[in-house]
Design a protein that fits this description.
The chain has 157 residues and is an alpha/beta fold. 40% of the residues lie in helices and 21% in strands. Strands 1, 2, 3, 4, 5 and 6 form a 6-stranded mixed β-sheet that branches. The protein is globular.
Length: 157
């Protein structure tokens, strides 16, 4: 299982949005178009998930994730906002700069959990988050997000 199997280059975008709702809608449109999902249904699932608890996890990151009836396969979209989304209500109360939207079919719990783990494995590295924020194109973001694992920073002992 590789992140690149679920994250297509065209699903990695520089966000135009300045609010949480706009950013989530922008990513939902990207993913709905790419994966053949119903935008209205996806938007509703995301809103329902956010009402339970904000998916802003701190360090400028948000990982909204939903399991959706009608999704044929798991898919990911990534949006980056250099300015930050200040109304996201992240756990650390700081603006969100990187949003990773994960959609998995209902009943694919293992795939869903493994994708969450893979995304957090990439984004836990501050150096990679900084490189993501400095990227100027979706292509550059794709290289950073799904690039060679050997290029990732090593853990300190």
């Amino acid at each position: 299982m590789k992140l690149s199997d679920y994250l297509a280059g065209e699903c990695i975008v520089i966000l135009k949005a300045s609010t949480k709702v706009q950013a989530l809608d922008e990513l939902a449109h990207v993913l709905a178009d790419h994966a053949g999902l119903d935008f209205g249904q996806l938007r509703g699932e995301i809103q329902t998930r956010e009402e339970l608890m904000s998916t802003g996890i701190g360090h400028g990151l948000a990982i909204p994730h939903v399991r959706m009836v009608g999704a044929a396969r798991a898919s990911i979209a990534v949006g980056v906002s250099a300015a930050g989304i200040s109304d996201y209500k992240s756990l650390d109360e700081k603006p969100v700069h990187i949003i990773v939207l994960i959609v998995a079919p209902q009943g694919q719990h293992e795939t869903y959990i493994r994708l969450l783990a893979m995304v957090t494995d990439v984004l836990r590295h501050e150096e990679l988050r900084e490189r993501i924020l400095q990227a100027t194109s979706g292509e550059e973001l794709a290289r950073i997000m799904i690039g060679d694992r050997s290029q990732r920073p090593q853990e300190s002992p």
